[in-house]
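Suppose a colleague, Dr. K., hands you the sequence of a protein chain of 344 amino acids and asks what its three-dimensional shape might be. Before reaching for any lab equipment, you can write down a predicted structure in token form. Begin with the sequence itself:
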Amino acid sequence: MKKLIYFVGLVLLASCSSSKKASKEDKNIDFAAKYAASITSENLKTHLYIFASDEFEGRDTGEPGQKKAIKYLKDFYVNQEIISPLGGNDYYQEISAEWLNKNARRGTLKDSENVLAFIEGTEKPNEIIVISAHLDHVGIEDGKIYNGADDDGSGSMAILEIAEAFKKAVKDGKGPKRSILFLHVTGEEKGLLGSKYYTENPIFPLANTVCNLNIDMIGRIDDLHKKDSNYVYLIGADKLSTDLHNISENANTKYTNINLDYKYNDENDPNRFYYRSDHYNFAKHNIPVIFYFNGTHEDYHKHTDTPDKIEYNLLEKRTRLIFYTAWEIANRKERIVVDKATTE
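The predicted structure, expressed as tokens, is then:
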């Protein structure tokens, strides 16, 4: 009996020592960098050459190509074992043609869908970070397929890589403390429709939504940056939350060292990009946002916006910046503060 007690004691002591050793090793590992490394230009390219191929027929809202696009997104999440917040095998937030046509700026639309996937937080599951991009483009015009590789295939595929990186963390027991909703919205080209529908019919209460990181065109270089392509435009980061702006800046300084260009963040900028992508439907509800954008280029809204013109190394770097920013927001002790709420 004494020998058994002695043996059990040794096992417990070894286990305790092993646990302490693992704890010390964990402190020496930068887990954000570890999982960000899984976001690669090769993976992004593989996805985008499919998502922005002729087979998807320009992903026009409600049309057959858009249906192929949502299936591609769903299949990815199923294969990665990333669940739907809608439950079971249902990854689609369905939007009726009636609602779409009532709210659309142009065209007559058919039923369409947002695609949603979800990773639940380990400590603060009711606090939700939304990472969004629009899955649609403009379809076929005059017999030419508008593939929308940059607009917004780049943002859509960036989300897939970010989701996979967070899932790897989950599998290693390092999942985010806050929950993350991966939201692929439809109908952006018709008037920010998918994001409008989501914010009017949220799966999680908007009061629980910490922020929205919206990705719309991050795979190309505009004319203003031909000599220095290491940039991305950030729009909206400081408009509602000083915390969000500071987290974004610090993540970039620590990890990616991209030139964060705030040219289009100016309230007086005539392009008014702050009001022209899906983040704005969150901002209207005083939810802090960042809009990641590479600016327009010669192929913007043309059939020549194809995947062979994407700068994949740059797409990788920008995607990692978004991941690092989301990682910090998800894992920090306190929820970011909305210190500039509007009353409009």
